[in-house]
Design a protein that fits this description.
Length: 693
């Protein structure tokens, strides 16, 4: 969840595209890739909570699935528990979250037929919301959800298998049917949505156009099922979309139906591929239902009272999670802007690039070169091709340094009287060029050639000594200048900014600020100062950054209080979700959840026992609709965590292990039953055992 909040914070600063990936089925990514942030999910949304038939006789069973759970796993686990209604998912290689978004289905059923509610994280708002099925705008293979709506979990109303019914046989039959009727290999699933669900099939329309086996490049319409497109090994997604475009055109011409893509097309641009414009626009998620969904979310957002920002909530909670200072540094945000930020026209802003091309003259044929009279500056005919050559990468020729007409014989066949030209630096006379007396006009070019010969021969010890002395002087000068710069008051810290502080010791912060001021931004030892800051239990991590000429920024990441308990000395200990004692107070911090009972006299910075840590994690994770029912938490010895409701109901969690799943079971139970009629809920064994009042 912390990662989702960081993405949300980044989106608030940088306008960039987002792609939420479930299991990647029914998705086709452009050959050029996707320019933006792609999100995949780990185990935090991979959980299942299924009811027991004996526990809730006569009630419709509600099943809770995390957004990362795969449909085949959800289907098989449901049948194993004696549930029916999700068997169709056994052959769909997608996730629960993806299935909700596209209203996946098959074999006469879909998600909409059993979906009760979903928990969604809104990336633009940085919050979780519980949404009813009617809010989602579900339609045949589509919904109002976009990439800014991340499905965290879904609650489904299923049914119990009748006596004698074999859910396993049903699963086997569905798997067999899919293997016989749908192709395997490289494909993105069913390509087009049926134009009229239950009446007009996209596959049948494509078949009637005679397009089975139709191929473009590395992609072809499947011979086994016309609504699938197969790609060759190492094939191109461009070819797949080209086949889609042609199939869509043919079906419209022959049958009048505009096929809509069921596949998510990612990274394709209609401007770059105008021939695919119709296919790409048919896949658009923008709809009236999406606008309505955003209006519903906005009403929920506006109507809910904001809780104390210091109380964090978990994936189960529907209230706003704690307002934390962004953990994203300016450098990260700048990198995101440079890589993915959109320009005002809606495209991706590209850095300016040089138009200079380095050309190897040995392989370039110049079709037409502009001639310039060096005496007049006038140009000849305009060139039709301009070649820019990097002079450092080519060898000089006589065309670059032409000899005058009087000295041409010197270059080709010197036969005149020898005249020695002595070098002023005392070079060996054997290295001198030989010229005629009348050819002194060319002496300059000859001397240049002589110096090149000298450099190649390495016969310049005096020059080497000069170069060595110059190099030493340069190094000494550089370090002298560096010492002057480091000692200069111009680069001393004068301005200090502090970010992210709410609970931390103000005196400690001020002492660090005092230590920073006057130090050079180039040499200050920030590691020592960061260690000082992190000696405060409230500060989980810190970072000090310096900026020329005179600014330092202190970034603080604080721990968040989750619960409190009273020690033997009658003083309150505030702890976080890791059981770390953040503060010892004389008063009672009633804004946090109370852990009832008398605990140990721990000092700030100490770590409480595992049962206190488990209780603090419970306090953080209780959903908003249950929070009003909770009176307090409790610890009874080293192997017992309890929760007392305002109705007097006692919830026994037992040992502090597997607490998340235990809490999920309790939450599901309290959503189904009135707690006023419950005396005790014992979930210590994993499955709730209820004692009625």
């Amino acid at each position: 969840m912390e990662d989702l909040h960081q993405v949300s914070e980044a989106l608030a600063e940088v306008d960039m595209d987002v792609l939420v990936i479930g299991r990647g089925s029914n998705m086709l990514v452009s050959d050029s890739g996707f320019s933006g942030v792609a999100l995949t999910f780990g185990a935090f949304a991979d959980y299942i909570d299924l009811p027991q038939k004996d526990d809730y006789p006569g009630t419709a069973p509600l099943a809770l699935f995390g957004g990362s759970v795969t449909l085949p796993v959800a289907a098989r686990q449901s049948v194993k528990r004696g549930l029916t209604g999700l068997e169709w998912g056994v052959g769909v290689p997608g996730s629960i979250g993806g299935a909700v978004r596209m209203n996946a289905g098959g074999h006469g059923s879909d998600m909409a037929s059993s979906l009760e509610s979903v928990r969604v994280f809104h990336l633009r708002k940085g919050r979780e919301f519980e949404l009813e099925t009617d809010d989602l705008g579900l339609r045949f293979r589509g919904s109002a959800l976009t990439d800014h709506h991340v499905v965290l979990s879904a609650t489904l109303r299923l049914g119990w298998l009748s006596e004698g019914d074999s859910g396993e046989d049903r699963l086997t039959e569905i798997v067999r049917w899919r293997r016989e009727n749908q192709p395997g290999g490289q494909n993105a699933g069913s390509v087009f949505v049926n134009p009229v669900p239950g009446e007009v099939s996209a596959g049948a329309l494509i078949d009637e156009c005679g397009l089975r086996g139709f191929r473009i490049g590395t992609a072809q319409v499947s011979e086994k099922h016309a609504n699938f497109i197969q790609a060759d090994e190492g094939g191109l997604s461009h070819d797949v979309v080209a086949v889609m475009a042609e199939v869509r055109r043919r079906v419209y011409e022959q049958h009048g139906h505009q096929l809509r893509s069921e596949i998510r097309l990612v990274g394709f641009d209609a401007e770059d591929n105008p021939q695919f414009a119709d296919v790409l626009s048919s896949e658009s998620d923008t709809s009236v239902a999406t606008i309505r969904l955003e209006q519903i979310i906005e009403r929920i957002f506006s109507s809910e009272s904001r809780p104390d920002a210091s109380i964090p909530m978990s994936v189960l909670s529907g209230s706003q999670l704690p307002s934390q200072e962004a953990d994203l540094s300016p450098e990260v945000l700048d990198e995101l802007r440079e890589a993915f930020a959109k320009d005002p026209t809606g495209g991706i802003a590209q850095p300016e690039t040089s138009r200079v091309v380095i050309v190897d003259p040995s392989i370039v044929e110049i079709e037409s070169v502009e001639e310039v009279d060096v005496t007049t500056g006038e140009t000849g005919s305009s060139s039709t091709r301009v070649v820019i050559v990097d002079e450092d990468l080519r060898q000089s020729t006589d065309d670059d340094f032409p000899a005058d007409t009087q000295s041409q014989t010197v270059h080709h066949a010197p036969t005149s009287t020898r005249v020695r030209i002595f070098d002023e630096d005392g070079l060996d006379v054997s290295l001198a060029e030989i010229v005629e007396p009348a050819q002194w006009g060319a002496a300059s070019s000859i001397r240049n050639r002589l110096m090149r010969v000298v450099k190649r021969s390495g016969a310049a010890p005096k020059n080497r000594r000069k170069q060595l002395l110059i190099a030493i002087a340069s190094v000494v000068g550089f370090f002298s200048l560096l010492i002057v710069v480091l000692a200069s008051p111009i680069f001393s810290v004068r301005n200090v900014k502090v970010e992210g502080v709410r609970y931390a010791n103000s005196e400690l912060i001020e002492s660090v600020i005092s230590s920073l001021k006057g130090e050079s931004v180039l040499t200050v030892d920030i590691n020592v100062l960061q260690d000082r800051l992190e000696s405060d239990p409230w500060i989980e991590s810190s970072r000090i950054k310096t900026y020329l000429p005179s600014t330092a920024v202190i970034e603080i990441n604080e721990r968040l209080p989750a619960a409190w308990f009273v020690g033997v000395d009658n003083r309150a200990r505030v702890i976080d979700v890791d059981g770390l004692v953040l503060a010892v107070l004389d008063g009672r911090p009633t804004e946090y959840m109370l852990i009832d009972g008398v605990g140990p006299n721990l000092i700030a910075g100490a770590t409480a026992a595992p049962e206190y840590r488990a209780a603090a994690q419970l306090a953080q994770s209780i959903p908003v609709e249950i929070q009003t029912l909770v009176k307090n938490l409790g610890v009874g010895g080293s192997d017992s965590v309890t929760m007392t409701l305002t109705t007097g109901t006692l919830v026994k969690f037992g040992e502090p292990v597997d607490m998340r799943n235990k809490l999920v079971n309790v939450v599901v139970l309290l959503r189904r039953q009135d707690p006023n009629g419950i005396l005790e809920i014992d979930v210590s064994g994993g499955t709730p055992v209820v004692k009625s009042a």
